[in-house]
Amino acid sequence: MKNNPEPLRPNIRVDWVGTVDQGRRLEISAEFNNTAYELLSVVADEIDESLWVEFFVEGKCLQIPFHVLADAVKISPEGVHSEAWYAQHVYSKQDNA
Fold first, then answer.
1. Which of 60, 66, 72, 81 is the most buried (most CB within 10 A)?
2. CA distances in angstroms from 43 to 19, 49, 81, 85, 89, listed in the order given
């Protein structure tokens, strides 16, 4: 991912949205360039009320089980680190061994 542009860290909104034909959903959106963009929504299945995270990729609506995202968020703090962290905590210790 070295050639990717610098990431944006826009203002984020979390809103409950209730519609007549889609029930109630939780939407996460970002605002930049004076425009709000829906990033993802948490929706409930019509049949069993299971929760799904819905987002769009190349015009297609994708849904992943909510528990997959919740589990990923829960374990992220213990294992996700920047390259600078690895340089300080891993690579420098290998050099000194």
1. 66
2. 12, 9, 30, 36, 40
- What is the model's pTM? 0.80
DSSP per-residue string spanning 34-56? TEEEEEEEEEE-TTT--EEEEEE
Q: Give dist(CA 83, CA 85) in Å, integer.
A: 5
What's the pLDDT tens digit per position in 47-89? Answer: 999 999 999 999 999 999 999 999 999 999 999 999 999 888 8
Other C-beta atoms lying within 10 Å of the C-beta of residue 69? 15
The DSSP letter of residue 89 is I
SS3 label, residue 63: strand
Q: Measured at the alpha carbon of residue 58, what is the angle toward residues 54 and 44, in degrees to the nearest 5?
A: 10
CB hemisphere CA count around 64 (13 angstroms): 10
Going by C-beta distance under 8 Å and a sequence separation of 6 or more, which residues neighbour residue 78? Answer: none
